[in-house]
Structure formats: structure tokens, C-alpha cells
Amino acid sequence: MMAVLGTPYPLFQQAWLVNDLDKAIKYWHDTFGAGPFSVTEHHKCDEFWYRGSNQEADVSYAFGYLGDTMIQFIVQHDDTPSIYRDMYKAGQEGYHHLAYLVCEDSFQEERQRLIDLGLEPACELFADGVHASYFDTRHINGGFTEIHGDPPRILQVFAQWRRAHEIHRPGDSLIWNRKQGQRSN
Fold first, then answer.
1. Global pTM?
2. What is the DSSP secondary-structure string of 137-158?
3. Mean pLDDT in order along the chain per 10 residues (185 residues)
4. What is the spatial distance between Cα 118 and Cα 44, in angstroms, rounded to a whole number?
5. How many structural domains compose the chain?
């Protein structure tokens, strides 16, 4: 599937739209050993664009690792048009997108390369010092494809989450508290 896109960048994330973050976290932990997860409730972007509008949906996220792959869960709390509602009605859930990291200094070049392949960015945002663009690639991989910038600060956060997964033990909390940089009790 990515050979069609021909990217030299590594896949790092798979994401699912879910109805309940806590239930998804517990299920993925109990079933696959994923986690712990960092949860961000009602995330707001610094800049946001969805198909010509800057109306931003109310979403919450959970990020954790399963081996070397970041797992993301998304809950959309409203019916605002979004890349999530493009695929799923309220109450539905399932696979949504994969993502690959792009060198921050090459981000715009990679974005343009995908546009030149005939793909349109459906959603673009800037949040927490990171650029991300989502392309509607359902005809290629059954979901969206995200390109995600990789500034050093965000790579350090990802490394902390990855390390939390490596050292996670039975009985540890399934939620990683990002603000404190440690698992919550």
C-alpha cells in the first residue's frame, strides 16, 4: 500500500476512531499488550483546516505503543464535519489512518509530492510545534494517511511513551500522565 505512495519515511502510527478511550485502552492492553497511553482530552490546535473550513471538531486522543508502533485512539465528541466523520457516523468506530514521520525541514516538500500524486490534503494542522497533514487515501489503504513532522521535542515525547511501554508491568496504570512525565497512580 505505501509502495503506491513511494515514501522513504517510516510508518510509525496506526489510528482508530473509538467511542470510549478508556474501553479501547483496556481492550488493547488486555488483548495485545499495548500501552500505557497518554490521554489528551478535548485537544485544540494552534492552526487548523478541514476541507476549506477552520471549524475544528471536539476530539480527545490517547497515544501508546505496541512494540515499535504507536497506537492512537480518537474520540470525536460532536458532529462537526471532520476526517473522522468522513469515514464514520456518530457511534461507529474502526480503523482510521496510518501515519509516517517526515523530517520537519522536508515536510512541505513531502506534502507537495503527495499533492503532485493527485492526493488532496483533507485536513492540515499545527499543534504543539508540529505540522501534520491528512490525505484521503481510502482508495489506497482503506483510510487516511497522515504525514507528521518530527521536531526533536516531539521525538523526545514519543521516546518517553515508547520507554513507558517497554517498562510497563502488570498492575501498572494504563494511563501515562504526560504533564508529569510519569505513569499516574
1. 0.91
2. EHHHHSEEEEEEE--HHHHHHH
3. 67 97 96 95 93 93 96 97 97 97 94 94 93 96 96 92 92 70 34
4. 29
5. 1
